[in-house]
Amino acid sequence: MRLNLRVWRQKNAGTEGAMATYEVDGVSPDMSFLEMLDTLNEDLILRGEDPVAFDHDCREGICGACSLVIDGEAHGPERTTTCQLHMRSFRDGDTIDVEPWRASAFPVVKDLVVDRSAFDRVIQAGGYISAPTGSAPEAHATPVPKADADSAFEHAECIGCGACVAACPNGSAMLFTSAKINHLNVLPQGSPERETRVLDMVAQMDAEGFGGCTLTGECATACPKGIPLPSIAAMNKEWLRALRKAPRG
Amino acid sequence: MSYPDYTTGEPITDTKAPAGPIADRWDTRRFEARLVNPANRRKHRIIVVGTGLAGGSAGATLAEQGYQVVQFCFQDSPRRAHSIAAQGGINAAKNYRNDGDSIHRLFYDTVKGGDFRARESNVHRLAQISVEIIDQCVAQGVPFAREYGGLLDTRSFGGVQVSRTFYARGQTGQQLLLGAYQALSRQIAAGNVEMHARTEMLDLIVVDGRARGIVARDLITGEVSTHYADAVVLASGGYGNVFYLSTNAMNSNATAVWRAHRRGAYFANPCFTQIHPTCIPRTGDHQSKLTLMSESLRNDGRIWVPRSKGDTRPAADIPEDERDYYLERIYPSFGNLVPRDIASRAAKNVCDEGRGVGPGGQGVYLDFADAIRRMGRAKVEEKYGNLFDMYARITAENPYEVPMRIYPAVHYTMGGLWVDYDLQTTVPGLFAIGEANFSDHGANRLGASALMQGLADGYFVLPATINDYLARHPSSEPLDDDHPVVREVLAETEDRLHLLLSVDGDRTPDSFHRELGELMWEYCGMARTEEGLTKALRRIPEIREEFWSRIKVPGTGEEFNQSLEKANRIVDYLELAELMCLDALHRAESCGGHFREESQTPDGEAARRDEEFAYAAAWEFSGAAPVLHKEDLTFEYVHPTQRSYA
After folding, report:
1. CATH number for the domain that contains residue B405
2. Which residue range or ranges hold the 2Fe-2S ferredoxin-type domain (chain A) (predicted)?
3. Is some CB atom of chain A closer than 8 A to the CB atom of B185?
């Protein structure tokens, strides 16, 4: 296949970016989208040009590093991560737009690479259970109903890629934040910090400059791990409950 | 520089493992290890490199104890370390199933599974700690699979006769890593951990014989800087990416361990690499990595190839009597469930005979047709649906209708920096944990044991043993960038980066990495011979020379430059690869994942030579011929036997 790529090029956070056009030939339908970019970069290096910077690591859909907006969609046309998107989803002669995540809380580092450290700070604000090493009781001391364990797992699957933020017209991180809150708050182990967790994480989310939720639902549609939209409603409920209880000093 | 040969140095006689009954040794060591008063801990800085299961858990735990932790990862977030990709599960001797499991049985299985090339004291400690790990992870909120009664579920794994593997669907590594990451995040928020993401360690600073810091590069600005501490912990993972194609993440690399080796840390058993039998075959030269399919598929899938060479008919057109279910034929009692190393070699053999399937003949069928007939499609879907979906996404084939194609791929490295019982390397103050060290798996790692070892080292072993070192070195001479040793290390790093940028040749970093990887796969992969290894040892210095005259790295060092990162890692692969081949050549026996064709039984199985090779090979860097130090392995509790699966 031969493709026309229009790729966002931006030297660093302090400079303006623009789309640049490249032609890529000899693309095999079996290539992943990132392998297609690899071949473009091999050519660019040999031509003495700067290769396109993009984040990637595991290339099997679990590390959450890859992060491209392809033809206007976070992670492209299939509901998966960019690394698991294959070129057979495109046709010979296609023109494909490739852009970084677009959100004010995710500033561009270079080309298609963005800074997602805001997510780390949201977790640092309370996305954990305080259980210092060595202090744990025997694992079977507290049974957890299977339904609760499964629900916790479903939310814990979030890979922190940021597609939800990139897809949201408001640049909201509600789905990401709610996934962690619903993972931990449903478990008996997470209950002592249930209120402070949701209040602190939501406050940090707002402080990072993420937008609010207007229930567009784009986040859940773009999520490669299928974190469900009602997760946000459950977080709002936790937040209101915590506000009323407000055990904070 | 090249390794024409090696010399033999003093054997390693003291591993610091206490004497006495094996079940008491860890308690003895913990009691004898000196402690650091809580008020004094905040005066000590500890550098931790890496944030995977080992590094993440170590950083969090050391910070909880009151130490100042300075932690590094090259990823944009500590949550993305490659431990996240582990699928299957984590072993622990809880015996919740009442099926006869015990700490001693886990210890026994691990020593035997490692083909009697691991240190008994360490393995026993690992089995003891395994039970505490599960408690710790549950307390952190790791959502392990549970039964309807609310208790933890387990499953069996690779060749073991008990059900001791705890799991979180096919994402156990992800869930355990997020547990460690969240514990680390709590300590970052508390100000106890200074976290440097997107920062890669490029060298080790050793002053007066002690590890005192690292040189690291900020991957965004390109700035090369120094960081000082009282001790340095490497949790930087394995070196499987020497092979270019592997199941490792693209950026996993050997630079931290190799640079530490060059500064004095012995490198043990570098040739011990694990090739996993069930990976999706490569589709072409564009292939950048290989994807693992859980080994659980071998429970119900049948592995076969056509009986005759060059049979290109579609699988469905090959009648039953023209198929060779070779594992069932050669190993009637274990069939498709033989251990990883055996299944991998058998696949290679049939492909070498010209009977492989798929593009390039580098694949064998893993067929679920019988299972679908027996259990029904719905049942197969329930059990393996997510794996089938993953396969379909990558290959665009429907595994419910045509058999899957699989081929072995490099997956894990048992070798690593040599460490004593305290997980300290031969450089005082430098510790290595997780896959970065060589300690517990011998010549072959059992399934679901990597997660166990990473967390055992990070949560429990290192935090106990590092106290002893710090208590013995209560104060360190302050260092700054004007210290002559630091100046020299910094200058070497900057010169190397500058040289990479200035060659301006005509070959990309990837082209060299791929060439090296193909060579290593051919001669230091699943089957090794004296002739092949000798050839590789001749060829690697030539590739290295070509690298330094033809490499092309665009851009500058003062910016985000992924080509420069890559090229700099290849510099180290090109040296480590040579040591791997030398180690494989010198070990003229077969054991576990190391198969020397010259050393096999009449049936073609691995033949160990205990009288000559029952030792860990610890290599010292000399700048010329490496020096081999042998640590003799003694087996007081598990007596070596030849493995048989027929």
Report:
1. 3.90.700.10
2. 1-102
3. yes
